[in-house]
Write a structure and sequence with these properties.
Blueprint: E1 8-13, H1 26-37, E2 41-45, H2 58-64, H3 68-86, E3 90-94, H4 96-103, E4 112-117, H5 119-127, H6 130-143, E5 146-149, H7 152-159, H8 164-173, E6 174-176, H9 187-196, E7 201-206, H10 215-224, E8 235-240, H11 246-256, E9 259-264, H12 268-277, E10 280-283, H13 292-299, E11 304-306
Parallel strand pairs: 1-2, 1-3, 3-4, 4-5, 5-6, 7-8, 7-10, 8-9, 10-11
Length: about 300
């Protein structure tokens, strides 16, 4: 029986765990582990933490400190050269810009190219000027072996911003493939967190505190819904994550006179412990397509409410 040859795979990503239990890009790390278990040689091309890339996203970080744009350009150029030297059989580019365009496009033409687009990636493309968006999507569509989207909604939302011929080219190489996730055993941690809130009904919301996540709708929902079988003063909402909307959300929670606990950015394992402890995970973002945190809650057997 013929033994499949070992492939050289380059994974290009702007988000990847920088330390054990770092929540950033954990789904990319999971995919890398799957490839390695299959016997492939995998090299990850990623920027150093603390520069242009990282929480809460490159556009925000560059606006905060414009000099970070130079850091982004330098890493992009360096990664393009290193990728060509590595000479992979296949490139997996998580996030179209800059991982696929321009970095992966600089690989040898014989290398297969898989592009993986997530919610933030599609929002960035949709926010480009129309001519730039068509140029980027067209270049990647012509080169990609396949372009994976984690949900149909994300593909539709990007295709709807393109001319008909560009949308057809995109769909010709597009596939819907939910990202890989692994949920560790957090039963003991979840039990301890559940005990800490005693008999109160526990709601959890996890994500960046930015307007598009609509965490204000989560707070309103927990405060006003009559379907919980508890009074407002018998409910606790734990919000995991941080961002520019935090002060506004804290004022909203205070106005409702409700027990809302803002825990900021915490490790992935602790996040999963809180999700596992919840009576209900509440999710209100309209811009992700298929949310990782929703999938994690479902794996942990936690009821999920998605607000319209």
């Amino acid at each position: 029986m013929r033994v499949p040859s070992r492939r050289r795979i380059a994974v290009v990503t702007t988000s990847y765990p920088a330390y054990d239990d770092d929540p950033a890009g954990h789904f990319v790390e999971t995919e890398v582990a799957e490839l390695e278990r299959a016997g492939d040689e995998v090299r990850v091309f990623r920027p150093k933490p603390g520069g242009a890339f990282g929480w809460p996203g490159a556009p925000t970080r560059i606006r905060e400190r414009p000099s970070r744009a130079l850091d982004a350009a330098a890493w992009t150029a360096r990664a393009t050269l290193e990728l060509r030297r590595f000479a992979p059989d296949c490139v997996v580019a998580h996030w179209c810009v800059p991982s696929a365009f321009p970095i992966a496009l600089g690989a040898h033409a014989s290398a297969e190219l898989e592009v993986v687009s997530h919610g933030g990636d599609v929002r960035l493309l949709a926010g480009l000027p129309a001519r730039a968006r068509v140029a980027v999507v067209g270049a990647v569509s012509r080169r990609a072996t396949r372009w994976r989207f984690v949900s149909e909604e994300l593909l539709v939302s990007l295709a709807s911003t393109l001319p008909a011929d560009a949308a057809r080219a995109l769909r010709a190489c597009a596939e819907i493939v939910p990202g890989s996730i692994e949920v560790p055993d957090v039963e003991d941690d979840a039990r301890a967190k559940r005990s800490a809130v005693r008999a109160r009904r526990l709601y959890v919301c996890a994500g960046r505190l930015v307007a598009s996540k609509r965490v204000d709708k989560v707070i309103d929902y927990v405060a006003t819904s009559p379907n919980h079988g508890t009074r407002r003063d018998e409910r606790t909402l734990v919000i995991l994550g941080d961002g520019p909307e935090r002060a506004h959300l804290e004022r909203l929670a205070s106005a409702w006179r409700m027990d809302v606990r803002f825990l900021g950015t915490i490790s992935r394992r602790e996040t999963l412990g809180w999700i596992g402890a919840a009576d209900e995970l509440v999710h209100a973002s309209r811009v992700e397509g298929l949310s990782t945190v929703v999938r994690e809650a479902e794996q942990l057997g936690v009821p999920v409410t998605i607000l319209s």
